[in-house]
Amino acid sequence: MFEAPPPIREDMSTMMRTYKPRTPGVRHLKRAINDHLWKGRAHLPLTYPRKGHAIGGRNNSGRVMVRHRGGGHKRRIRVVDFSRVEAGKHTVERIEHDPGRSAHIALLTHNETGEKSYIVAAEGMRAGDVIQSYRKGIPEDLLKSMGGVMDPAMIAAKTAWRGNCLPLHMIPPGTLIYNIGLTRDGGGQLCRSAGTFGTLVGSSDTHRDTEGGTRRKGQGLYVNVRLQSGEFRKIHKEACATIGVASNANHGREQLGKAGRKRWLGIRPTVRGVAMNASDHPHGGGRGKSKGNVIPISVWGRTPAKSGFKTRKKSNINKAVVVPRVRNQGRRRRDQSGGGSR
Prior knowledge:
This protein is mostly beta strands. Helices cover 6% and strands 23% of the residues. The protein is built from three helices and 19 strands. It has a seven-stranded antiparallel beta sheet with strand order 9-18-10-13-16-17-19, with no helix packed on it. The protein has a four-stranded antiparallel beta sheet with strand order 7-6-5-8, with no helix packed on it. β11 (180-181) and β12 form a beta hairpin. The longest helix is centred in the middle third of the chain and has 8 residues, at 152-159.
């Protein structure tokens, strides 16, 4: 029996909540309108406490590995299922806020086993939606409804719905996807933050024959996905992806309103290098606001801190990148010797 896809709900992509400036801290406060979020606690069996000196950016020997980390409100880590290997229908119980990520998460319940799990929610997903994962193949009831005929167009019409997890070769070209995997057996790694997505462009034209080792035309082993940066990546066709856009798209438009709200998030202040002493930063020391006759470099003095300096070795090329993203806003970067662009 053919089931209807999830409904298209009202677009609230441009609506932000502002407050009357009763205090200075709320004068510039802007928040996304997320009245559909769960108001209670998380599902505790799928969480564990976030504790230890790693909260302050330290490693196992106590050294600071990441600066500007520390403090913040007490949290619990949510265990999110990025692989979604379990087949069958899942019902969305509720949409929750996750303090460990910018996107929202959805609590799912398996319709047959009753097992619960967390996934990264899609934009527009609400409680009561029924979603599925097709990583283990097409279920038999779906094949019977189509008369046993493997029609790719009909399969896409019944499976490529918002929130469903599919292998990339089952997704029609031009579909917006998120939580994209990089390997055939792994979980999603790309496009997991709020409002991110990729676009499935199409499959590769050629692939290498496993027996003869020759390249021939036909259905390749990889598909091309365009990311929001403009980069085209070659990904294995058996890798997973979820239909839709990652939820909480207005996260980038929010304004915290005061410095204390940043401390609640566990982020400590960032001090400029020119405001430090010469022993603390290469830009420190001197009279007045001057960094001396040096190029902008990092606090460790190893790499330039501007103009998008590439630290990747030229011999270690990322073969998965088909078309690299546009750097420096499309303009030619000034050479390292200090001369102008030609």
